[in-house]
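Just wondering, can you check both lines?
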Amino acid sequence: MNKIRDCKVITGDIVINDYKEPIIEFGDIMNIFGNLDIQRASSLVRIEADNVHRIGNRFILKDLTSLNSISFASLRYVKMVDWKVLPILNVAYFGNAIKETESVTVSDTSLVEFPGFLSNKLEILDINNNRYLESIYSNVEKITGRLHIAANSRDVRVSLPKLQSAKNVSIHEVLDLDLNNLEEIESSINFVNNLFINLSLPVLKSIGGTLSLLKNENLGKVEFPNVTEIGGGLMIVNNTKIDRINFYPKLTIIGGAIELIGNIKETNLKNLKLVKGSAKIKSSDSSFDCTKWTKSELSSVIRGGKIECINANNERITADTPTEGGNNDTADNEEHSVKLASKGVNLNATTNLKYILLLFISMLIN
């Protein structure tokens, strides 16, 4: 570091492994056009790089178990951020918002706030296992790969107010969530073990894969008013306060199976026209009528298997879909037709024999 700290431009990478000192100082270095990669330095406590203006590719910090602060007062441009296993890092100072970022992963730190990265488009936004992180904000409009928020502070508030489309979305252990402008999910979206009371995606229209709501114990109000199609399955499982499935008023197509488990009193999916998979419900509410559910309007749109219901007494009721019933009816009709045809053949043969005998008797008389 002493040999390069007077340089202003590094055209390649800076790679630092197994560094033995407590501080790294970047001196006069302003532009690093390759990677800045610092790993496996258990003695490193602080990184000072206040003149670094640009990191042209990856900014990697990994397995730095004593690092508690970094300072990049002049940094404006970073392509990819990849920070993992920085368990006591609690200060990340940037004098400016970071631009032109394409991917951000921040995992296993002690940060309280998410550093500002300004980008309209990201491939990955993955913020996980930052146990003190209470606020996550980004102005991103499109995520082409993965949005993953999980295992941060129990009080974390996530705000992505400009996000319009994403490929895969997975939200875990979040207290408050703003995805009010989200219009499209290319693949799947999962909400698991969250603490928010309300979940509203007011402009979301289509989901290419599976939609899952799993074990969100406080969730009582759900709004998906404009979702018309779910390309995969629909899973609503063990959400303690959701007792009515009536928040998909425009949903017409489900490309996979339906699985509903919980204290469910009623379902309302009257606009469904096609479910390509099966349908299963398990209700712990004593008032739920499995017989009525298996014979509801839902039974006429299932195309991928049986309809199954398990009630509060653990009694199981199943019903065939129209496809399965249709196959049985067709088989019965074909068997009936064969029997009729056989009778027809016997009748014709008998008639012909009688005619031949009468003709022979007539010839003898003559």
